[in-house]
Structure formats: C-alpha cells, structure tokens
Amino acid sequence: MHVDLDYFYAQCEENRSPNIRGKPVVVCVYSGRTEESGVVSTSNYLARKYGVKAGIPITRAKKLLESAGAVFLPMNRPLYEQVSERIMEILRGHGDAFEKVGIDEAYLDISTKADSSFEQARNIAGEVKRQILTEEQITGSIGIAPNKLVAKIASDERKPDGLTMVRPEEVSSFLAQLPASRIPGVGKKVEDKLDQMHVKTIAQLLTLSPTILVETFGRSLGGYLFRAARGEDDETVKERKQPTQLSRIATLKRDTSDVGEILPLLGELANSVIAKLKEKRMTCESVAIIAILNDLSIHTKSKTLEQPSSDEKIIMDAAQGLMKEFLKSMPAAIIRRTGVRVSALSKPTGQTDISNFMKV
Ligand code: TTP
Ligand code: CA
C-alpha cells in the first residue's frame, strides 16, 4: 500500500484556519529578497484549477489568481512536520512493515495483516483513511498493488481522497493506458527523449527492446524503465534509519558581513533545528554553521560539544559563536545565505542503555 496525502501543506493550513476553506490557497516559499519573490510550494485543488502549482513564481501565481479571492501563506514547516509525524504513527500501526518516503508519503507492507487478500487490503485502506480523517482532518490517496512501484502509480490515479486497487491480473491493463510520465522517476528529460521515440504511453514503452532502452538511457535507468513498464518491482518495504544530521538554511534579506544582520536569522534557523531535534527526541554532538557567500562559495565551521545535547542555549551559543569566529577569520566575506547543521545525532536510550548501568 502506498499512501500520499492530498495537497499536504495547503491542507494543513486549511485545518489551521478554517475560514480559508473554499478559497484558492497557495503556500509560498518567500526568498525574502523582495516582498513577492519566491516560488509556490504547493496549492489546494481550487488554486490548481487556475494553473497554480508547485514551483511556479509567486508573482505568476498572483497574476493567475487575480480577483479569485486567493489566500497566500508563508510555508510553516514545523506545523506540517508535526501533523506528518502523527499521521505516520497512525500508518505505522497498520502495516507489517512501514517505510516513510517523504513528509506526506509512505509505503506499508500489509501482506500478513490482509492475509494476502486484496478485499481485506481494501478494508485496511478504508480504515487508514477514516482514521487519518477523524484524528487529523486530512485526506489522502491510497494505492494497493502487488508491489511498491504499482502501488505508488495507483495512489496517484484518483486524487484527492482516492483509493485505487490493482490486482495482480490487472497490472498490465492498468499500466498500458497510462502516460509513460506516470512512472516514478520519469521527469521532463526522460519524457522528452521518449517523445522523440514516439513513446507517450506505457503501452508504447512496452514495444522498446531492452537493447534500445539501455542504449538510450544507460544500463540502470534503461533496465528500470523496461521492468517498470511491465509492472515489475521486487523492492521490500523497509523502515528507514533515523537521520544522522539535520540542517536549515535560508537567504538573508541582503548580502552582508554585518554580524548584527546575520545573527537573528541564524538564531531562527538554530531554533528550528533545535525544535526538530526535540521533536525526534534526539541529541547532537556536533554543531556547524554554513555560510554561502555572494560569490556562491560555501564555507562551514563546526564544533564538537562536550557531550551529546539538545539544549537550546548550548546549541544556540555554539552556532552564534561559530558565526562570530567565521566573520572574524574572513573579514572580507559577504554572506548571501546562512545555515545551521547539527550532526552525530543519537537517541538517548535511558535506562536500557548499558553504559548507564556501567556508570552506577
Ligand atoms: P506532493 O505530494 O508532491 O504534493 P501535494 O501533497 O501538495 O499535492 P498532491 O495532492 O498532488 O499530492 O508534495 C508534498 C508536499 O511537499 C507539498 O504539500 C509541498 C511540498 N512540496 C514543495 O515544497 N515543493 C515542491 O516542488 C513539491 C512538489 C512539493
Ligand atoms: Ca501529496
């Protein structure tokens, strides 16, 4: 089963401010350069009807939505991460194995829980949807199939609030009618090349020999396309490891070497990293600052803490201290973007950790 939440950031915003429901909602990543500069992160389905989608400039979105009563909101990542984390916990409980693949996307192996029955799988999907909706007021779209690849393609078939089940005997006919661009990993470049070969649908992709595919796309991508067109995939659903580092980076209002202008933004980024660390109940042992200069060169400076920590003051002091040192060591540096990174992350295991027993 593949679960993909619908217009996720925008849906979180609708839940937070119910008065914006029924209006086009656009979540923006403001670069901070000018009031309007930046791109659209995502939009609700109403805004998409006007052509407003992820990646287009905010100025363009404003033109498209002129006099449509649209709402433009800045991205609020901590909010989306909290909602995501709670939904992932719900999902985890429904799978024999669980794999989060993005903030709003996960695979579940439900073979055992569904007793290998597709009818039973459909019931589980219904229960998953119901639970996410009642507990978090979020809708998602689900694909159920014999493997991860087909499940992912299926979850995208009926959006929003969709449920698409593809039984083993239906895989070929389901895929055949779809555009080749629906295969995960087929972006604009591959699509253009396939176009030149007069391949638009997966049915047409089936006519290309492995030799042609490998010649055109190389061994790895060519082989993948050959198998994907046939709905073949044997990847298992596997839990991803905890991250070993976290970072946040942002653009300053203007290029500067003034510590007084840099520290407030650095402080915000540090706070965001600290919040994330606490949310994951993890500690870090190393803190680094990132400085991208106006010539786009990237500089980092890091420091090892005396002991693993998630303490606000310790991490904040470390980040700000590093930035002051950096500016002193490179007085001519003019900074364009800055960031904070914490690494050597671990999860304190408390009483069960053998080293704690040893200390007593
Ligand atoms: P998606 O699942 O691609 O998009 P979505 O959930 O907004 O819409 P859909 O109903 O079509 O699934 O991405 C998940 C979130 O990731 C999305 O809400 C915002 C963020 N995102 C960006 O910030 N920039 C991007 O370019 C994309 C594609 C997504
Ligand atoms: Ca989504």
**Which runs of at least 5 residues are low in confidence (pLDDT < 50)?**
350-360
Question: Could you tell me the radius of gyration in angstroms?
Answer: 24 Å
Q: Strands of the biggest beta sheet: in what spatial order? A: 5-6-1-7-8
Main beta sheet, described? 5 strands, mixed
Strand content: 15-25%
Instruction: State the share of residues found in helices, binned by percent.
Output: 40-55%
Which structural class do you get from the secondary structure elements?
Answer: alpha+beta
Query: What's the rounded overall pLDDT mean?
Result: 94
Helix segment tally: 13
What is the first-to-last residue Cα distance?
47 Å
- General form: globular
- Counting DSSP E segments of at least 2 residues, the number of strands comes to 12
Order of helices and strands: EHEEHHEHEEHEHEHHHHEHEEHEH
Can you list the ligands bound to this structure?
A: thymidine-5'-triphosphate, calcium ion
Description of the molecule:
The chain has 360 residues and is an alpha+beta fold. The chain is 41% helix and 23% strand. Strands 5-6-1-7-8 form a five-stranded mixed sheet. It has a four-stranded antiparallel sheet with strand order 9-12-10-11. Helix 4 packs antiparallel against helix 5. The radius of gyration is 24 Å and the shape is globular. The site of thymidine-5'-triphosphate (TTP) has 14 residues, from strand 1, helix 1 and strand 3.
Identify the notable features of this structure and list them briefly.
360 residues; alpha+beta; five-stranded mixed sheet; four-stranded antiparallel sheet; 13 helices; binds thymidine-5'-triphosphate; binds calcium ion
